[in-house]
Every structure is written in C-alpha cells, then in structure tokens.
Amino acid sequence: MTASSADCLFCRILRGEIPATVLGRSDRTLVIADITPQAPLHALVIPRRHAEDIGAFMAGKDAEAEFADLVAQALALAKEKQIDRTGYRLVVNTGSDGGQTVGHLHIHLLAGRPMGWPPG
Ligand code: 5GP
Ligand code: ZN
C-alpha cells in the first residue's frame, strides 16, 4: 500500500483513466459507486488529494476543512438518496488490520440494509 499517485487506483479514477460511476463531485472530492457493493447503496467519497491513509491525510495542510468536506459530501448523498432517515454507516478502513485495500484515503457510505455491530 505504498502506491504513488501515478499508479494509485483512485488517482487514476480521478484522472479519468479508469471508468467509474460518479455519484457526486466537488472541488476537493469525487464520489463514486463501489465496484463490489456491500449494501444496496455503497459509495466511496474520495479526496482529490492523494494521501495513503487517514493519518497521512490529516497531516496535510488544511486537512480539517478538507475532511469536513468529505463528510459533507457523504451527508449530501445520504440526503439525495433519502437514506438519511433510515440510517447509514460511514467507514474509514485503515491499514491491514483495518481492512484497507486501496492506499488512498476514502470514506465508505453504506446504506439500504440493517448492519450489525461489531462488523465481521
Ligand atoms: P478499502 O478496502 O480500501 O477500505 O476500500 C476499497 C474499496 O474500493 C473496496 O470496497 C473495493 O470494492 C473498491 N474498489 C476496488 N477497486 C475498485 C474500482 O476499480 N472501482 C471502484 N468503483 N471501486 C473499487
Ligand atoms: Zn491516490
């Protein structure tokens, strides 16, 4: 998980080199449908700035405002899809024990079915 932005999967999607179903966008983010959805709605909110994980991302300049923008994009999609009343889950997987498989920070938005706790 040491991909540079040149060969990073999500950077390639951000550059349009790999197709994705776009669900939203802002100056600082792109929201896409997960290719292997784990729930009826499974979106990925991706910052345009490459950072390997949440720790690297938060070390960046202006990171708090940028992270707030990611959350705002997730909430906007939740409202648009009308799952803000039934509920949803926001997830940031980090590192190998956290189940992270793509080394570019992203927030999962999962909704549309009941989800147990703790996750498996
Ligand atoms: P992570 O495991 O790093 O938290 O999440 C990575 C997510 O990216 C996974 O849920 C996986 O299904 C998704 N993913 C992997 N490759 C692609 C792809 O090429 N396109 C899209 N849209 N999602 C992908
Ligand atoms: Zn990247």
Question: Concise description?
Answer:
With 120 residues, the protein is α+β, with helices and mostly antiparallel strands. The protein has helices spanning 9-14, 54-58, 63-80, and strands spanning 22-25, 29-33, 41-47, 88-91, 107-111.
Description:
This protein is an alpha+beta fold. It has 3 helices and 5 strands. It has helices at 9-14, 54-58, 63-80, and strands at residues 22-25, 29-33, 41-47, 88-91, 107-111. A 5-stranded antiparallel beta sheet has the order 1-2-3-5-4, covered by helices on one side. The site of guanosine-5'-monophosphate has 14 residues, from strand 2.
Q: In CATH, what is the homologous superfamily? A: HIT-like
Low-confidence stretches: none
CATH architecture: 2-Layer Sandwich
Bound small molecules, deduplicated: guanosine-5'-monophosphate, zinc ion
Please, how many helices? 3
The main pleated sheet reads as: 5 strands, antiparallel
General shape: globular
Question: What is the CATH topology assignment?
Answer: HIT family, subunit A
Share in β-strands: 15-25%
Structure characteristics:
3 helices; binds guanosine-5'-monophosphate; binds zinc ion; 5 strands; HIT family, subunit A; 120 residues
